[in-house]
Design goal:
This protein has 107 residues and is of the alpha+beta class. It has 3 helices and 5 strands, in the order ββαβααββ. The relative contact order is 0.30. The chain binds FE2/S2 (inorganic) cluster (FES).
């Protein structure tokens, strides 16, 4: 299992375990994490799964792909250099301990 810590806009941290191969959006929904909506089910059509990857993990999660950049233009909250669509981050053992920050606008 892969541990992921979700940090809500108010600083509340929730750590859960996800299956390798699952994505960060689905893992949040499976664990009732507030702050990720995932309206399109992970098909990169909504940007309601926007998160900010902790700077310390940004290299490991990798860069955004072109489709993410386009979709993030529709995000309700500010986009930063570590913004990702959480449905596009797949959990692997390398990401064990991953931390992501969730925008207030998605609560
Ligand atoms: S869930 Fe819709 S873009 Fe990620």
């Amino acid at each position: 299992m892969v541990k992921v810590t979700y940090v809500a806009f108010d600083g509340t941290e929730t750590t859960v375990e996800g299956e390798p191969g699952a994505n960060v959006m689905q893992t949040a929904l499976d664990n009732n994490i507030e702050g990720i909506v995932g309206e399109c089910g992970g098909s990169m059509m909504c940007a309601t799964c926007h998160c900010h990857v902790d700077e310390a993990w940004a290299d490991k999660t990798g860069p955004r792909n072109d489709g993410e950049d386009d979709m993030l233009e529709c995000a309700a909250s500010e986009v930063t250099s570590t913004s990702r669509l959480s449905c596009q981050i797949k959990l692997t053992s390398d990401l064990d301990g991953l931390r992501v920050y969730l925008p207030e606008e998605q609560v």
